[in-house]
């Protein structure tokens, strides 16, 4: 099911780090064979484990993996997002969020994009990190701080790869604290595009770069 991806942010806790490794879990397909589902867990990429899993399920599994990666963004495309510079912060009734962007997008923001009428450059990437919120029990005054990590959502601009959505692709990964893993939410890179058409004049990005 496609999700609505609204770029609005809150506070990012320094002790939370991004999962770094993708492994493939075989799952039963409707045809009776094995397909694959990506699960993301902390650590470096386990190339040996990945090779063993691919070898066990044959070449057909490999073809399915390539098709899935072409259809949607992968977590590994955003390696290092936890070190990106902040764009803005925000909160909802139950969540705190932070938006951060890679160097290409941050530089465009500083040059006045999209307010100056220019689009973001190819290769722009932005992430929304969302936590549930709680009151800080140590603060002498009212402060809301991040509690449990809920999800990370990504947007990337690659016009050659995603021409049908004006160059933008979208992905969201839901975090499961019990297993310390992320699972993709949505079927393809178009999920999230519909709501962003309301800000087409801003190159499809909701979040502004506030003065600092």
Largest sheet: 6 strands, antiparallel
Average pLDDT for all residues? 76
Instruction: Please give the oligomerization state of what you see.
Output: single chain
CATH H-level superfamily title of the largest domain? Cytochrome P460
Distance between the termini: 37 Å
Q: Under the CATH scheme, which architecture of the largest domain would be assigned? A: 3-Layer(bba) Sandwich
Shape: globular
Beta strand count = 8
| CATH class call of the largest domain | Alpha Beta
Helix content: 10-25%
Indicate the radius of gyration in whole angstroms.
Answer: 18 Å
Fill in the CATH topology of the largest domain: Chalcone isomerase
The low-confidence runs, each spanning 5 or more residues with pLDDT under 50, are 1-69
**Structural class based on helices, strands and sheet pairing:** alpha+beta
What number of structural domains do the residues give? Answer: 2
Order of helices and strands: EEHEEHEEEEH
